[in-house]
Amino acid sequence: MSFGFFFEIKTDRLVCIFKYFLYLYIQFIEDAAQRTNFRKDFYFIP
Question: Which superkingdom does the taxonomy of this entry point to (predicted)?
């Protein structure tokens, strides 16, 4: 999935929502990695 689609959108609201969900996704992965002591190599970020 190319991220060029998101950059073409000029709406600030959609950009903020995308950054917000991306932030939550990264926080979830880091929290799960610390909680389960798994290496972060096992997590695949799309």
Answer: Bacteria
